[in-house]
Amino acid sequence: MNLRKKDRIYIFILALLVLLGLVGCGKSDDEPANLETEVPGRYYTIHEISLPDGDEAMTDFLSEAGYVEELSIVSVGNKLYRTARCVHEEDDISVYENEIYFQTLCAPYKEWNTIVIGEYGSLQYTGEIRIDSKGVIIKEDPSAILDPFREVTDSSVAAQSGEKVYCADIYGVWQSENGQEPIKIIDFVNAGYLLWEVCSIEAKENGKLQVLVEYEEGRSLLQLEEKQGTKPQKRQIVITMAFEDPVLVDLVTRFNRQSDEYRVELNICGEIQAQSMLEKVPMEVMSGGGPDLLLGIYAENLAEEGFLEPLDDCLEENGDYFQSAIECNRVDGVLYGIPYMQELFAVAYDSKVIGERSTITIEELMDAVKQSDVELLCSGMDEMNSLLYFALSDNTNKNYIDWEKGISHLKEQPFIDLLEFVKRYGDKGQIPSQDLPESYTAGKVAGTSLALLNGELLEYVRQAFGGDVVVIGYPSERGSGIYTQTLSLSVNVNAAEKEGAKAFLRFLISEENQMRIAEKSNRIPPLGVNIVSYAFPVRRKALERQIELKQKEKPDEYLSTNLRDGVTYQRKGLSSENRRILEYLFEQAEPLKWNILPLQSVVTEELEPFFLNQRSAAEAAEILDRRVQIYLDENGRTGQ
User: Fold this and answer.
1) pLDDT higher than 90, residue 374
2) Burial 46-82 (b: 16+ CB within 10 A, else e)
């Protein structure tokens, strides 16, 4: 079959997304930012103001004193108060201000109704409490004022000013007047704030709102001020993605908070629509449209067609980048994508099978497996994937395909022998999943592939193989067989705001934000996303920081995971030996640019009859050889 260039675009994208698991599984912080409002003729600005000193000491004092039960926070002016129901004096409220005094204010428990948020975002009581120098004033229960907000938020963080009631949660602030349907006057996410908690909201006498929030940078007091007129517009930059990357979401919101000129909008189409996105986005770009920033998976083909902006000017002259991550995004020597995270692909082998070594060829691996008691080449990899990953992914192996000369050798005996090998040792379920842990230590499994998103998997393979493990690359004739793949963005040549798009890419790869990725590697993001940063930064200093933080963690006996093979391992911490392995893998890694990727569907189509015993190895090899040679003749030599 003759593959046209446009056909290859879609095949390449689909293959790489399947490989990465993306398809098929289903201002300074003190600068104001303009926010959206649903009320014509007005908008709100937000400004961070510093909190008084001593808050941490106050928190420690209350915790040590046992006042953590029903703890609440209130801000009055620029002073921060915490109130807590005294555990040992049941009917009391205690107030502590900035290490100045700690005072017990009596109030009957049954009447202590407050519009004050508790420590973990829940309203203990509905009512109003005002703290002043004279003590506590308790008013009637006004819980009905929250009724209009029930359809838009389950938060009870509220404040009242005359006929206006305000309710806030981590997503924004709503306003209801005279009991009418609430309108959203503040959108925290669009403003660049991914909040962990909204502790309290206060309506000030001057018409401003003051919201006490907590997010990753710490606790802040946000002052919201209403402005008359039309909201100043930022120039918009659009990114379309199939999945929500929490790291990118975090960096986008930070950029939007800092930039007075640009605003990045993430358009998440969802995994269900990922397939149509793969076909739609390149066609939109080639038709003169499409999003401003594109996922790096489109880079190679769109760059060849002239639809991407060169991005070499986005790199610092002496930046401490991993060159393998940068080279992943070059086409014919020109940079068309800026990476912000990377992951490693390697293999953990049973050292009893292959011995202690730093590299291995496919021929050496085949010989070692045949001379051992191995029953399974790689857990979780069937015959087809074993062939693609362990043999055809090696661009330097001329025994099967000579990419430099453009000659296929797939009908020759070495490839026929390879087919018989993967058919015998590919994962067909010959070892039941419940028997895999024992099979690892017994030497019946040669290895397991690793998509290293963090260093914890190294502990998994160490335990899986009972300590007899060597972590190196896939078989390779001249390289390490260790590959890096990046999460990256490219600039559409049709983008109206090219300079803004480049400004955002420089922001992504800056040392400050790469260090932020490292610091966030073990933090749970806000907004209900229950996964952590799932890859490594692309700057060396940031990676070193990430590893240092990981090493300082103490393994938690309760924090363990049963991976696909039923092996339980501790998920926190990084041993010195695993750190050495991880650093070695990064130093040896090569860009993942497998020449076979555009031909993956062809390989699958022609070899499936052989694996189903419907065609001999020689027959399948000859047919595949013809189709691959047609592709090579049409596309010329790769020069690799």
Assistant:
1) yes
2) bebeebbeebeebbeebeeeebeebbbbbbeeeebbb
